[in-house]
Amino acid sequence: MKAFIEWAGLGLTFLVGVVVLGNVTGCAGAQPVNYPALVQGFCAAAPTELEGLEADGVITGGADDTMQKIVTPDITQLCALAVKTPAQITPASIQAVSNAAVPALLALVASSDQTTSYKETETALLLGWQTTLNIALPYYEATQTPAASAVAAQ
Q: Distance (Å, rounded) from C-alpha 82 to C-alpha 93?
């Protein structure tokens, strides 16, 4: 099951890349991408992956502190917005996960007692998450009108 989840996460990252590339190159068959959809895709996969890391013994001891202080609050906040009010997703909420939670998870995986193969697979999956979130940022910025940006700057 774990292997399926890992490959599904990598598949999601690949799919996002194909759709984004299709949009950038003007491919007629590509579906429009929007930042809430990218974030919602991440949020759909995150709980299962976090449960898998815990079941595999990556999240133990001192890792619990990292999870409670960084990873869980950042992901919970972003995913709550994605489910309830996607229009309120902000660059700060996306960046908190991309720039703090994912690197914290990467550090936990790297310092775990798991095999090199496991660590490489998890690292690829987590970097896929980070890439998905980083792809969402320009789509968020593209939705902001100059008038909305001017009001926000005041």
A: 10
